[in-house]
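4.2 Preliminary Data

To establish feasibility before requesting continued support, the project team ran the inverse folding procedure on a target of 98 residues. The structure was first converted into the token representation described in Section 3, and no sequence information of any kind was made available to the design step. The complete token record follows.
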């Protein structure tokens, strides 16, 4: 149960930071008032895609491992974290492709 609480706190911090970064980058890519162009380039580095989609994959693997170790509470916490990371990854992808 202690591991689940620690993971819950760590996962919450990760989700909040990712959400703040999503908002910050989204505000930074808003159209500038003097032109209709966006500030960022459409060329997104491969490393960014690896990070954006790698975190949900790693979280899913973690949830699977905890389930196999018969740690149900921890597996549920990691499963919920996987879902939130997946939603954030979709949001990041939509933002970067727009």
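Position-by-position output of the design step:
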């Amino acid at each position: 149960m202690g591991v689940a609480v620690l993971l819950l706190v760590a996962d919450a911090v990760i989700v909040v930071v990712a959400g703040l970064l999503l908002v910050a980058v989204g505000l930074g890519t808003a159209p500038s008032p003097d032109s209709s162009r966006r500030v960022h380039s459409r060329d997104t580095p491969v490393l960014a895609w690896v990070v954006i989609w790698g975190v949900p994959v790693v979280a899913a693997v973690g949830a699977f491992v905890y389930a196999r170790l018969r740690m149900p509470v921890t597996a549920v916490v990691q499963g919920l974290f996987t879902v939130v990371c997946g939603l954030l990854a979709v949001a990041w992808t939509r933002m970067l492709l727009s």
